[in-house]
Specification:
single chain; 316 residues; alpha/beta; D-Maltodextrin-Binding Protein, domain 2; 2 domains; 10 strands; TRAP_TAXI; signal; TAXI family TRAP transporter solute-binding subunit
């Protein structure tokens, strides 16, 4: 990625009639972080981490890449387009097992930490006649951007509700920004979104003139657990997150920071250490960083810890 970036800077300089040398204030090395939709929490969480890396890791500059989300980030990581990725734990589990979107082969992922948990939102227009997930039949539903963690889990939830996502509804794969516009103007009836709390796009949607309703999803957990054991956990979207009348029972899944297995051990160690040493700076970027707990951050499930990260948790 660094070579491509420097080559681009050189080309721009040549086109402008300047010397091809890159600006002297560029750092020697760059780390590209795969995040998510610009109106989602991954983008803000990743931006805060990039700021901490750039400020406190000598010799490195971190660059935030907006992406489609979890699966897209892992595909980009495999191609070498990003160096560090945020991903849902269920998507990462499929990647290391070589399942689903990664059926062409297992991915050599290694985790640095479990950062926080995503809360799945099912938001519907109050006038759409949708009271349960099964009522999505025949409705216009956005399941999130293609290859996002939101889409990944939304399709599983729809199937757990006894519906076929491609035959039983008019399904769209839209960004969060396009989705919220569609719900506000009446071209969509419902959307799934999985993210931290609060998500800016959902907050903005709740301020729209059209009334919205959150539906509980905890009733789908038994079927999810049967199909995907020990992957999803019950949780609650607190009323305070979006000014709701009450808490919303839902499905949660952990978020991981992951890298390739061949990242140097010392770099993986330092990237992990930054998360805890500068936790308050991360929280200032997005409050979900406050959810990280050192005692649980190293319990990354199916995705093995990077040896450098493991050394940090062992030695501190």
């Amino acid at each position: 990625m660094t070579r491509r970036l420097l080559a681009l800077l050189a080309a721009v300089a040549l086109a402008a009639g300047c010397a091809p040398d890159p600006p002297t204030d560029l750092r020697d090395r760059h780390l590209v972080l795969g995040t998510g939709n610009t109106s989602g929490v991954f983008y803000q969480v990743g931006g805060a981490y990039a700021d901490v890396i750039t400020t406190h890791l000598p010799g490195y500059e971190a660059i935030v890449a907006p992406t489609a989300g979890s699966a897209d980030n892992l595909l980009r990581l495999g191609r070498g387009d990003v160096d560090v990725a945020l991903t849902f734990a269920d998507v990462a589990a499929d990647a290391v097992r070589g399942r689903g979107a990664f059926a062409d082969g297992t991915r050599p992922l290694r985790a640095l930490a479990v950062v926080y948990h995503n809360y799945t939102h099912l938001v519907v227009r109050a006038d759409a006649g949708i009271r349960t997930p099964a009522d999505l039949r025949g409705k216009r539903v956005s399941t999130g951007t293609v290859n996002s963690g939101t889409e990944f889990l939304a399709l599983r939830l729809i199937r757990a509700a006894g519906l076929d996502p491609d035959r039983d509804m008019e399904r769209s794969s839209l960004s969060l920004a396009a989705t919220t516009r569609g719900l506000a103007d009446g071209t969509l009836d419902a959307t799934f979104w999985s993210g931290g709390l609060p998500t800016v796009g959902i907050t903005e949607l709740m301020g729209a003139k059209a009334k919205m309703r959150f539906l509980p999803l905890d009733g789908l957990l038994p079927e999810l657990d049967r199909l995907y054991p020990a992957t999803y956990v019950a949780g609650r979207i607190p009323a305070s997150a979006y000014g709701l009348p009450g808490d919303i029972p839902t499905v949660t899944v952990g978020n991981l920071v992951v890298v390739e297995a061949d990242m140097p051990d010392d770099l993986a160690h330092d990237l992990t250490a930054l998360i805890f040493k500068y936790r308050q700076e991360l929280v200032n970027g997005h409050p979900e960083w406050g959810s990280i707990d050192r005692g649980g951050a190293g319990r990354t499930g199916v995705v093995p810890l990077h040896p450098g990260a493991q050394r940090y948790y062992q030695d501190g």
